[in-house]
What does this fold into?
Amino acid sequence: MKTIRLALLLAACASLAGCDGWPTSLDNRASGNLTFRYHHRLYDQWSGWAPVLRGNAVLLAREHRMRDISGLEITQGGLTYRYGTRALAPVHGLCAGSSSCALVYRGAGRLEARTAPLPDAQMR
It folds into this structure.
């Protein structure tokens, strides 16, 4: 009986871990700090600008999944890089079936997407 309870408890914990309430992150791997904002398709307004220090990662708002992000702007070193729906289409495709999506900004407008954060991501 204890084995069954333990199995049920482990299954419940595993299923809850799969329902990540903070599914999207942005990891700054550029040579300097950046600020970013994004547009969620259900809102009229863009998010506020948020800083990400070099070498750190941040989580977007609770339950904001990549598939619902219709625009992203990243400012680094005085330049702003804008990613619209067409530019984000490959990211949406990659992250569509995943419970999480990690955006990795490499600098100079280079943005990557992964279905899991980098192993050494420093979430702040």
Observations:
- The helical segments are 2-18, 85-95.
